[in-house]
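Usage example:
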Amino acid sequence: MVKRLRGRPHRQLPLHDTWGVFFTLGVVLLNFPFLGIFNKPAVISGFPLLFIYLFLGWVLSIVIIFLFSISAGVKQTEKHKP
Amino acid sequence: MKSGLVQAASISLLYTLLIFLIAWYAHYRKESGRSIVNNPSIYTLSLAVYCTSWTFFGSVGKAATTGIDFLFIYLGPSLTAFSWFFVLRRIVRISKENNITSIADFISLRYGKSLWLGALVTGFAVLGLTPYIALQIKAVATSFQLISGISTSSATIAGSTYQDHFSIGLILTLILSVFSVIFGARRLDSSERHEGLIAAVALESVVKMISLVAVGILVTYIMNDGFGDTFLRFKETNPADFARLFTIGSSPSDENAIHPFTMLFMSMGAIMLLPRQFHVMVTENCNENHIYKAMWCFPLYLFLINLFVMPIALYGIQTTGSTVNSDFYILTIPLLTGHRPIAMLAYLGGLSAAAGMVMVESVTISTMLLNYIFMPVIVRFTPQPWLPHLLINLKRFGIFLTIFLGYFYYLIAGNAFSLVNLGMFSFSAVIQFLPATLGGLYWKRGNRIGAFTGIVLGLTTWLYAMFLPTFTKFGWLQDKILTNGPFNISLLKPTSLFGLSGLDPWSHCLFWSMFLNIGGYVICSLLLGQDEQERSQARKFLGVFETERRQRHHTETTRLSKPITIAQFTSLMAKFIGEHEAQNAISGYIGGRVVGKTEYISENELPGIKLFAEKTLAGSVGAAAAGAIVDSFLSDMGSRMELVYDIFSTVRASLDQSREALYVRLKASEIINRTLDIQIILDDLLELLLKEFKLDLALVVLHNNEKNLSIGSFLDSTGQNIAEQNWIEENRYIYDLVLATGESFIVNDTAANRADKTGTSKAPAAASHAHIPIIREGAASLGVVSVYSYSIPGLFTKEFAGLLESLAGQLAQAVTISREIEAKERERTQKEQALLQNARIKRDMEIAQQIQLSLLPGAPPHLFGIELGGRCISAAHVGGDYYDFFLRDEQTVDLFIADVSGHSVGAALIMAEVRTLLRPHINSAHNACTILKQLNNQLYDDLTRAELFITIFYAKYNSATGRLSYANAGHNRPLVCREGLDCCIELDAEGLIIGVRPSVLFEERSLELVRGDIVLFYTDGLIEAINHEGELFGVERVCRQLQATRHLPAESIIDVLYSMVSEYTGQKNFQDDISMVVLKIL
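Running the assembly step on the lines above writes:
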């Protein structure tokens, strides 16, 4: 799986820009007014809405960094190849 | 209670021992070269030093009081991980290249190695982080009380005695201090990573994670039935609290509530800027590539450690019924529910969190203190041998100081704040480094004054809006100031500065401090310029990821005005880092090169070794102090860094080749291609050099094939002339050196360079001079281009020398071509002259031939009763054969045939002489032998001198008597062919060759000739003619021929004989002269 993913995303997206986009997106998603969408005392199958939003979003962000850090590592090693 | 205390104390001790062992093991492994710390997982775990006891206890406390917004303190760093790809990698790269050891070092170095800036950052860090350390001590002390049973319930914690705090806190402080010293300040070189410390921190990170997750699982899955169940139960019992805790900003009146953006922003900054984070992330980073894994592993760690915080908080509220001391739910819940082992584990987790943070933070801050507070004072004194000991002990003192400051703060203010508040206090302080740091990384114009102003403004605002209000809690400040503002000026109210109200204190402080900080930084940077050092540092920081090609072309813009030896540099370093370390460092730098320790370092190497010395010292004393130390050392030595007179300054930054260099190259190649006249090329080229580079004197010395040096061209800006021979003699050692090595000889400062012993009439006036060989690749040097500047030392930078070398290379090409053309021309003339000479000789020879032929008798004399014929054919133009007839009277004729040895011009001349000498004898009455005798006498001297000799046959024929009398001087015997005889009669008489002896007697014989006799006189060329088989023509054949042709007239007999010989040899020309005289008796 990891092997298959390796090198995939970075072929389509320029790495530098992608990091910047995700970083900015993260800042926007974690602030008002966007945060206001989930800032309600609602409960989804026993879990508070904000709890689900923050934790699921967190997991998602970790997965994204994971994928991109792999391709970044690949790029680095490619660079070092003669 | 007693047993609880003993148990807690012994477990704490055992745990400390374990950490100690792990740290020791890691250290041992590193020493033996098999690091266990050098991997991305350990790196990630060491970053988790971010999660202090504030995370461990405070998160739960904050979750229980203000709800889920505590998460932003962890979401911020998690988000920052996205930026590590640019920011952290860049910082790590820069720090490794410059041996940066702390955030203060980083900021100070970026802004021109400013000591003041470093001191400011250090002071601010100490101020801002003391509460944070106090927080750790408070957390551990309190948790120890809880676990040991000194205070059994959370309700009594606040009431625990001062004495308890004092003793537990003090013991903890001492242990932590000692531990930090052992692993953080064992040796001075702090650029060397503290692997033991990192291993300890990593282990602690694992322990705190496990213990928190353990408590989480206890609460969520043992006490309750999963997350959903936990939430549901809480919602049923406290519906209002549930809604409040799971939304943000629903309780604005709460003094602990902080705007989520503020928390996000501050935590994003803190993860990079907290001195301990900078330390573990940057200084302790073993490998840049570890960052990639840490980018996702660290957020994952934060995620896991926070996953159970909310359930624990909710369960804590349910079980204790209040949020008082909610900070310690993590301990009280297992205690209250009877899970003492888990409580103990939780206690160890808390201890780990606190210990890790305190150790790293204290080591880092002590480094900063040493570098920026102690060092600036120390460098003012003359270094003493005990200096390395002083430095290391100062560093240890710094560690104690930092931790004890925290401890005292805890004693004074420990109970006045919750854990979270103490933490946020520090966060809002370190965030003030953000503008200077980020600006330093990405904004070229950011300058020292800007950074200083920004941080001072940020610090002032922070002190006023954040620090000052806390004084009211201890009664040091009247509440009035907070509510009405100082002097009743409400605009200056610390908590709502300039009328900005409605924000929580943190957001308020953050807004104003950042506003003023960024404003001050940007405005000062825009308005004020940078000095050279700042510019050079800015270039280094911003250009750290530039391609290697660009870096290779980076040239030093400064140089040392006086050379220093390597030994001097080593002893300087030894004063600060110890003899052993200094020796190691310098031999690492020199590497395999053979450099004498006492040798002066070459011009080009000096900036490099200065930089190296600074970098090495920076590891121990900080970049700014290192710069100051090296500079003051150099000034003591009478040397200093001075700006290199930079010829290529205008566009070097954007182009590899400056415009000037390109222009000069272009002009030079124009000059060289315009003409083949080397003199014009040399003159024009020197003029170009003088004009373009403000040189004062330029000359070209060429050396020819005979290795003689001569001045090819010479140009002096003052128009003076030089004495060529003197000049070359005085500078011969330079020219010999350059020509022999084929390398440039550059003296950039005649006053300082001892290697330059030039004694020329001009050179003492020259501040710098360079001598470039005129050389083509793989060929020998053709000469030297010498250039002198009278006023500018250090003119000949590497780059300039490179340009000159390339011009000299072009010149070499031109000189070679010109020399080749010259050589060809010379060869052609020589050939022509040789041809001319040949023609002349040939003509002379032809004339000689004509003359010689004319010396022979034109036609034979007519005498009654005989017929005469004679001919001579020379092998070359002239020959040594001679024959003649002298008609004495009407009956007598003298016949004469001679052969001078060889057939050269010499032979011909002798032959002429013989003729001259013979003529007088015509009228004498001498007989043949007398004539020969006289001839011998006359010719002997000349012949001996010329090493020649002559054979002569002299005959006298009287037609009246028919008698042929003759004498022979070694000549071929003439043949007489008589009718009726098969063979020929050979005429022979005793006699030696002429020219052998001075006096010779010749025999005279005679023979009566009868009618029909044919006498053939001949020279040896006739009988010695050789055919293809190498056989001689021979007398036999001649004789037979005579017999066969006896009926023919004399001339015809000769013709036949000649044609016979020609036919016999098969060649047109004869090998030797052939002469024949035929006497036919009619």
